[in-house]
Amino acid sequence: MGRRTFESLPGGALPNRRNIVLSRTQPSLSDCEIFPSLEHALEGCSHEEDVFIIGGATLYAETLPQAHRLYITQIDDMPAQADAFFPLIPADEWKKVHEERYAPSENIPGYAFIDYIKV
Ligand SMILES: NC(=O)c1ccc[n+]([C@@H]2O[C@H](COP(=O)([O-])OP(=O)(O)OC[C@H]3O[C@@H](n4cnc5c(N)ncnc54)[C@H](OP(=O)(O)O)[C@@H]3O)[C@@H](O)[C@H]2O)c1
Q1: Residue where a domain stops, chosen among 18, 34, 62
Q2: Domain with 1 in it
Q3: pTM summary value
Q4: For residues 114 and 119, what is the distance between their CA atoms, to the nearest angstrom?
């Protein structure tokens, strides 16, 4: 994850997994491993590990070309103050392989879990 995403986590580092944070400015942050570049971070992972990119917008945009699979939660709503967005998913590069859609209920907008694989 990018440094700003880490700082947005309400309870700090996520439990029961490696928390790898990219930052060019922070030499350390609590309970996570910091790497100064994407290349260094990926070199720090073994081939046996599944690597998940969990945001934010900067990291998603940087890593989309290298990703093999996307696990998207699409929410049918947008807060007026939204200022970070997932990049466009090019339809000719990604194939939808799973979609689970949930209708809106009282205070919850509609949402869907959508998986894509690289064509
Ligand atoms: N809804 C969701 O699924 C979701 C998921 C994740 C995040 N978010 C939201 O997205 C927002 C943050 O997204 P963002 O795009 O503003 O920031 P971000 O991607 O989380 O973090 C950007 C920072 O990461 C570091 N970074 C990025 N690429 C790097 C690279 N190649 N090498 C070294 N460092 C690198 C830099 O940190 P330094 O400035 O320290 O160098 C950069 O300023 C937050 O509001 C968060 O809550 C939402």
Answers
A1: 62
A2: 1-62
A3: 0.94
A4: 15
